[in-house]
Structures are given as structure tokens and as C-alpha cells.
Amino acid sequence: MSDHDHDIKSHIRTYMIIGAALFIGTILTVAVSYVDFGSHAINIAVGLIIATVKASLVALFFMHLIDEKTAIYLLLSCAFFFFVGLMGLTIWADQNPPNKTQNLQHAPMVEVTVDSQHPSSASDSHPEPVHH
Amino acid sequence: MEIPYTVKPRPDTGVYNAKIGIWLFLASEIMLFGALFSSYIILRITAPEGSWLEGVLNVPIGFVNTLVLIASSVTIVMAWASLKMNNYKAFQGYMVFTVLCALTFLCIKSVEYNDKFHHYEMWTNAESNNRFTGHFDKSWLAEQKSAYKAKVAQLNADHQKALSSWSQSDKSTPAPVAPKFPEITFFTLTTTEIRNLAAFLGTDSVVFEKEAKHAYKYHGMPGEDTHASNDHAAAGAEDHASSTSAHDDHSHHESLTIPVSEIKRTSAFIPSHSTYFAIYFTLTGLHALHVFGGACVLAYFVICNRKMWKNEPDRLANRIEVGGLFWHFVDLVWIFLFPVLYLL
Amino acid sequence: MAHDTTHASEADHAHHDHHDHHDHHELNFWQKYIFSSDHKVIGIQYGIVSLLFLLLGFLLMSCMRWQLAYPGQPLPLIGNFINDLYGGENGVMTPEIYNMFGAMHGNIMVFLAIVPLGFAAFGNYIVPLQIGAPDMAFPRLNMASFWAFFIGAILIFGSMFIPGGPAQAGWTSYSPLASSIPTNGQAYWLIGLVILIASSLLGAVNFIATIIQLRAPGMTWMRMPFFCWAQFVTAFLLLLAFPPLQVAGLMQLFDIVFDSSFFLPSGLIVGGQPADISGGGSPVLWQHLFWFLAHPEVYVLILPAIGMICEIISNNTRRPLWGYKTLVFAVLTLGFLSFIVWAHHMYLTGMGTVISTFFQTTTMIISIPSVIILTCVLLSLWGGSIRFNTPMLFALAFLPMFGIGGLTGLPLGFSYSDLYLHDTYYVIAHFHYIVAPGTIFAFFAGIYFWFPKATGRYMSDYWGRVHFWLSLLFMNLIFMPMFLQGLNGMHRRMVDGGANYASPVGPEGGVIGLLSEYIELNQTISIAAWCLGLAQIPFIINFFYSITHGKKVHSDNPWKATTLDWQTPTPPPHGNFTHPVEVFRGPYEYSSPESDDDFVPQNAKPSPSHQPAVAKK
Ligand code: HEM
Ligand SMILES: [Cu+2]
To answer: Labelling C22: which of A129, C125, C246, C534 has CA 20 to 30 A away?
Structure first.
């Protein structure tokens, strides 16, 4: 039992240290946002890296992910993989327009005809009907 | 019938049921917030040139809220550790502190929200300086409100009177029609509401407190002072006279009387104002909902589970662990939300 | 000895209702049948509700088929009623009504009928039984999941009766169309959807936790019946693919309620007027989030069906499933890959060649595990002495139907052929072959198969066969001609069934429109659809009649099955098993030399003389 208590006590020390690190990290996040690292992209990257470090600290120590069971690691890697897939592929799809000089998505001009008499004509993307 | 492994871990997986359950739930939460962050990125990179807002939010408030959440994350894990060390008193203390932190967070957030609902951007027909932010003058607004109410009451009373005299008459004339007046909430005024109000009351101008410093910049806006784009202190560069104390939001205001005919559009900082505010409210609103839900559950654990501590201490410890995992996740999401929305 | 649980339970079968009352605290009617936390009751609740919605979705389509076959002619019987509800005159279906019914047919079928029936109803009833668990891991969450589903379903279905009618923008609800229609139906649908998703998340958490944690001793992963594997993967799909749609649904709801512009671009013109919005949103984002769910969703529609088919085929061929491990591996791969193919629904949104190639490639790769699954099941038939009972007939018919649906999907996976086929009746035919003669047949098979377990009585085999042959005939008469129509360019979602396109001779003399013979096929299809409806009458009567009057089963294991669901009393009591179960072998030990009776249940102790034979598997 005392062994167990000792274990918890050392845990508590870790929690305190991590808590302090998170406080410092937060101050750092705000501080670096006033610094220009040369380009907008780099500024964003720096901010995100600090946030990621902080989030990892929470996940690893507060959520005990540093020492977890395989089932949970498997589960989380699935979720993480699909999350990266969702984010990565949507961004990629956006960055790979059909024709680079004529980026349709960035200059959208969409017309929806919702006419109170015949909303059915709002059916998407069909060619002009041919009447006879 | 008894469900196995509700308290003790199953030997081959090494976890008890609720722990698998909460991690599964968190996995779906990763996808939930992951999808929202993905949307944020897509909306931001596809936003038309100059329409994405930056630096609009109140950084000190966000900063304080971050600290509040982090503190609560520390205390919830301490609560769990106290239970493990059989110290129920300390456990209670930490739990109460955690829940208080959650409430503080929500209070601060609601103040911040409320501020956004009454913070306007105004576009005028002027040649230059035609786009600025601020809020409607408070006393002017109060005047309008009471004038509106009085006039509505008056119209209704007249109508009632006409109606009763008509119903006593021989009803040969058509019944008096109900008076028409514009519906105005006075909570967050839209452009149409302002125009309607002016027409209804016969006023021809609004009193607007313009923020002397530029409240915010548009990312990549042509002609904007790009040097200042990451320097909050110099955000007021365009307006040298008042650029001295940029953090002191409400001290430098310029009262303007703007003819209604000159107003092109006005919009408060609400979802319909811009896609940035739309995603800001969605992200933070959903997060606040999580904070609220988490706080309720944690409060329930500390208020109603005393008996469980006597009978099944392990089960209570498990509950706190599971609740704590959720709480840390909420904290983790905020750790990303803060820089993404407030700073970058 | 192998059957000792069976005999024991048979012995007290007559009394077990009585026992129940002594063993557990008394449950009143409400706790037992309405707000029950017993997985079997919840499964049946889900089953009843979703079967009703299946019927409803079909009835909506029956009305639409009238309009397609005889455009502009008054709808018999209910024409005036729908005019009263939604406007229009003379009992004729207006374009708006067609759009409402079409959108509701899709929504109801997908979200309120097939998914709850396959995943929640069959899954709830069977999975805990098959893995030897007393109940789900979180019984009360299970109940919450059902009631959340119920509320969401009421909202979605109830929106058919609000002023202005229900959603009209198709089940895909593409923005900006969906948020520009000036009625409230879309908002109702979105709120209902968000609640439904919450319900299915609770369900998915519960299923996965149950399968991970509550397998009976000895029930290792590779001894799990394939149906449980299929449900396991399905639950993961729901768990991880649904949240993005929940987000998207909320965002579209905000577009409608708070006038935000998440999916509305700058410069949007609605009804000839510039829309009063801030703009700057991305319509394509909706499609990404929607299809991120909706592609995995098609596997949610089909995997439980495949799982059931495997159980039934193995049982009725009296042979082990061919390549059980391959099947498991294939279904895991399928689940995994289904998350990275979604944009094959979006080739026409304007996609660069690189990203399009990526999605074409993953789409082709994902067809491999599907083909593996079908091949394994087909090979399982090889050399079996097949029992052709009703469940088996449906299960066998599933295979070619699923095959047709799957193979016709390949041309849709390539962007160059999809350019032509996109949004035509070819697509309708393709996915209906999967979900209608495919999934629905599997569900019929499942109902005929597990009915004796749930009620203690068989459904009539004769009327089952009548139901089967008529359904098979009419299903194909409905959907086969749609391939032709689609290949000839007939568009989906057309209120007049393509009459607009009828123009055999163009200005230059060539054929530019739809040939009238393809338009006339509409009548064949519609008549077949109504006949299909009539063909369900034997089933419905058979179902209700058999609950009280069907032939009684003579044992707890009437099909002589190996899996644990059949080693329980009939119907299984609260808590499922009368004795603690332990599992000693794989799920499909049919034609085993170890037993005189040609099968060995999973919980049969290995007999000492046959030790090596057992170790083999
Ligand atoms: C068995 C009887 C069924 C028949 C006769 C039938 C018929 C049809 C037809 C003709 C359409 C095209 C309507 C149009 O484009 O104007 C359609 C659309 C659709 N059906 Fe079915 N269907 C049946 C069952 C199902 C089932 C079981 C599902 C389950 C997933 C389903 C899901 C859909 C969906 C998602 C659409 C697309 C709706 C839209 O355009 O947004 N159907 N159905
Ligand atoms: Cu797909």
C-alpha cells in the first residue's frame, strides 16, 4: 500500500510540473504572437507547434497516455489516422484545382434559382431541357 | 444478471468497460473537432481576398480563460490522485475547485459573447474611412427603445379604441386594420432593423461610438498597413492620435452622428457578419457546451456519490478517472482553440 | 455433452418466464417492454420502428413512381390528400411534392430504415448473444440510444406535416440549394439528423465496448462469428465517420437559422436576387464533410447484411465459411479504406487531376476486399449439401444482387466514365442493387432465420418462398431497366421522368434526347414497384401470424447452428444464458467428424479423443 502511495506521490509531482509547464506555455503562446518570424506562415506554424506541445503534455501526463493499454493506443491511432485523412485530403483537394490559372473555387459565382412557383427547377446541374 | 468488468479491468485488455467507453467517445470527439478545425482551415484558405478577420478577439480574456481551464485540469487529476490516496476531503476540495473553474470559464465566455453581439462594424457611403467598428451609443439606443415602445403602445391603444367603437357601430364600414410596425428586438440590430426603426420613429441619424483605434485588420487586405499585422500594440497605426494605449479598449471613442441614408450596411460580430465569426461561434459554442456538460457531470460526482465512496471506492475512482479524461480533452481542445482563434 | 446447455434450458424452458420473476426484481410492463435496457427488447424496438420506416419510404416512392410513369396525371387515392398538405390541385403531384418525397425517401431509407435495422436492430439482438455476453456493456446507454433515435426519427418524419413540407434538396442536401429553399423542412431535418447521429454514436460506443470487453471466456477474436466482426467494423465506421456530418449539419443549420455563410459563396444569387449574406463560404466543403460520412455509410448499409449472409450460408451449407480469416482481414481493410475514397462522389465539382487520381486509385483498391468477401462466400457454397429454406434462398439471391451492384459501381469510380454517368438513373440502379435487393434481401433472410430464436416459432416456409420469388422478380424488373435509362442519359431527380429530354431529332438531325422507348420503361418500372409492394403482403401476414400461430420449434437450436446465440433458451431471458458460457472452438464447426450430429457448438467441451482435431482450427 505504501508502495502504491509512493507511486501516486511521484505522480502528483509530475502533475504539478506539467501544470506549471502549461502555464508557461500559455504565456509563451501569447508572447510569440507579438513576434514576427518573417512570414505569416511561419508565425502560424510557431503558434501551432507550441499548442501541439502543450496538448501533448496534457494527453501524455494528465490523460496517462504515456502508459496506456494497447487497445487504447490502437483505437486512438485509428481516430488520428482518419482525422489526418479528413483534414489532409480536403485541403489537398482544395489546393489541387482543375486548372491552376482559373481557380473556380476561389471566385465562386453560383446561381440558385429558387422560384416560389417551381422550386423543382433548382435541381442541381442539369443541362438545359430541350423542348419540342 | 451482472455485467462483468464494470469495476475491475478485464485481464486480457487491461481496462474496465467505462474506460474503453470514454476513449471511444473521445475518438469520436477527435473526429468532431477535427472536422471543425478542417472546416476552419478550408474556410480560411478559400476566403475571398481580404475577408478573413484577424486579431478581433480580446486576447487578455482568452488568455485568462486558458489559464482557468488549465488550472481545472490540474485539479481534476489531483482529485483523482487524492481518491487513490484515500483522502476524501482533499478530493472534495479539488472537485469543487474544478467545477468553480468551469463556471468561471463559462461566465467569462458569456461576457465575451455578449460583447460581440453589441459590437458593430459599420460601412458608410463616404469616400474614405468608410468602414469602422464600434457600438451604438448607449443612451441613444435607450432613447430609441423607449420611443419605439411608447409609439407601439400608442398605436395599439388607438387601434383598440377604434376597434371597440367600430364593434359598437353598425359595422357598415370595414373593420379598422391592425397597425403595422416593424419588429425590432433591440438585442442585435441588423441593417434592416435600423432602417425600419428610423423610418418608424422619423429619426434621420444614428449615434455611433467609433473605436478610435482600428479594432481589427483584414488579413491581406489590399492597402492595409501590413507591418502592423502581427503587432497588436501598433494596431492603431492609422490613427496616430490614439495609438498610445491599444489595450485600453473603451477609453478612446469618437462619437459620430451618421445619417441613416449614409449607412451602407452594419453588422454586429455575429455569425451572419462574417464566416470568421460564424466558425468562431460554432467552435467556441460547441466547446462551451462540452464545458457545461462536463461541469454538470463532475458536480454530480462530487455531490451525489458519497455513498459510493463508502461502498465501492474503486468504482468512484474509476468514475473520476473517466470524467477526468473527458475534462482533459475539453482542455486540450481549448489549447488549440485559443491560438487558432485569438492569435493567429 | 455437447448439448447439455440446450437440454438443460429446454427442461426449464416452460418455466423460465416464471423463474424470471423470482430471480430478478419485478419489472412492470413499462420497464420490460418500453423503457427496457435489455438488448433484445431494444433490438426488437429498433426493428419494429425501422421496418415501419422501410414501409413508409417505400410508400413515398410508390407515389413518386406514379408521377414518373404518368406525368401530370392525378394520383389515385391520395392525390387530394397530398394537395391539401402541400398544395397543387386536381390530385396531381407538383414538382415540389416530388422533391419532398424524393428527399424523404432517401433520408428515411438510409437513416431511419436500413441503418437502424441492420446495425441497431439485428446488432443489438444478436451480437451479445453471439459473443456470450449477458447484455451490452452499457445497458442504460443502449436505451438512451434508442430513445434519441426515436426523437430524431419523429422530428424528421414529423417535418412532413409542418407548413411548407419537409426538406426538398435530396438526401445529399447540397448547399447552397438546401439552405436557399424558403421552408423550414431542411432545418427540421438537420436537427433530427444531429440527434440521430448522437444516438448512433452512443450505439457505436456500446457495440465496440461490448465486443472488446464482454466476450465470453475462450471467445478469442478469431473465434468470433463473422457477423460480430462485421458489426464491429460497422460500429467503427459510425463512430468515426458520423461526427463530421454532425458538424456539417450544425453548420448548415446555422446557415439557415443564423444566416451564416459556411457553405454560401460570395456573389450568390437566389431566385434572381443577390442573396443577403456575408458570403465567403465554401459549397464544396459541405460535400467533403457530407461524403466523408456518406461513403462509409454505404458500408454501414451493407456490412451487417454481409455478416448475416455469412452466418446463414455457413449454417445452411453445413460447412465452415471458406477463408474465415481472409474474410476478417478483408472486412477490416474495407472499413479502413472506406475513409479515404469519399471524393469519388465529387469528380464533377472540379477537381485537379492529381487528387482525382488519388481517389480513383483508392476506389479501385477498395473494390479488392469487396471482391474477396464475395469470392469467399461463393466458395463456401462449393460442395455443400445446401438446405434451401427461405432464409437460405434470400441469402443466395443476395450474392448475385450484391455482385451486380458492386460491379456496376466500378465505372462510377473512374472520373472519365463518371462524367457521363453521374446523376443519371444508372447511379440509382447501381446503389439500389446494393441496398434494395442486396441489403433488404439479407434482412429478410435474417428475419426468417432468427425469428424462431426470438419467438419460439417458425415463419411459414411456403409463404416465405412465395415472398422470395415474387420479390426477386420484381426487384430486378424495377432496377434492371434503370441501368438502360441511365446509360441513355436519363437524369435522376426529374419530376417528369425524363419527358423534358424527349427529343429524338436534334436541329442537325442527330439524336440528342432520350428515346421514347426508354421513357416508356418508366411504366414497366412503376408497375413492378407496385407489385413489389403487393409481394410484401405475404411477408407481413406471415410475420404477424407466425408470432402466435407459427409452427413451434422443437429445440432451442432449430437450425442446428454452432454459434452461441443458438445455445440459449428460446426466447433468451434477461441475462441471456442460464449457465456461464465458455468457448472452446471456432464459430463454424459444421460437418465435424467430432460429432455424430454433423456440427459442434462453440461452447461444447472438446472430447479427449478428438483433442488434435480441435487444436487444428
Ligand atoms: C425497394 C424499393 C425502392 C425503390 C422502388 C426505390 C426507388 C428509387 C428511385 C426511383 C429513386 C430515384 C428518384 C429520383 O431520382 O427522382 C430513388 C432514390 C433514392 N433511393 Fe430508393 N428505392 C427503393 C429502396 C431504397 C432503399 C432500401 C434505400 C436505402 C438506402 C434507398 C435509397 C435511396 C436514395 C438515397 C435515393 C436518392 C434520393 C435523392 O435523390 O436524394 N432506396 N429510389
Ligand atoms: Cu462512395
So the answer is: C125
